[in-house]
Specification:
Blueprint lengths: L2 E5 L4 H13 L3 E5 L10 H4 L9 E4 L2 E4 L1 H12 L7 H16 L1 H17 L7 H21 L12 H16 L8 H11 L8
Parallel strand pairs: 1-2
Antiparallel strand pairs: 1-3, 3-4
Length: 202
Amino acid sequence: MPIKLYDSKVSPYARKVRLLAAELEIPIEKIPLDFQKGDPQKPEYLALNPNGKVPTIDDDGFVLWESIAILKYLAGKKGRLVPKDARGQAQADQWMIWWANQPEPAIELLIYEHILKPFFGKPGNDPSIIDEAHDQLGRFLPVLEKQLAGKEYVMGELSVVDFAIAPLLELSQRRLNVDLGKYPGITAWLERLQAKPYWKTA
């Protein structure tokens, strides 16, 4: 039975789950939510995810939200892309928590200023907010660049960590005017992921 994925094409967080499911060859049934119609705030969806956000999965009655938790769950079901030992698991958690608490909020600010505010008819592109976001990325992306030195993937081998990080970083380069040219390790890593056959279609 496919896992139900409450999904949105515009959500990089839902894209994380679609990409990992494709890599793991886990069948999913995508249930699209329309934000313009208020689908995520409807009572039936809030009963699954009280945050009113995507993604959420329903695996035969087991409901889970938060993209990182979902990634770890799917990988654990398959016994792939997650370290087997306690230290490896802790390191994977370290990088995913670091990403969610340091670079990712800066990208979220850029998404809000460049995309969401105009979408909702609000004035966007506040220079002070944009500059602060770029300053934060300038502080933290070198940490990822250093980690990738001499490695094909963040943990050395492909893991859930790559799927937790790549979609928003890819979006920042494509839509948010984030220049990754000064990070050759990050650029090469993204290109390796983008070369995967499912990357564009997931």
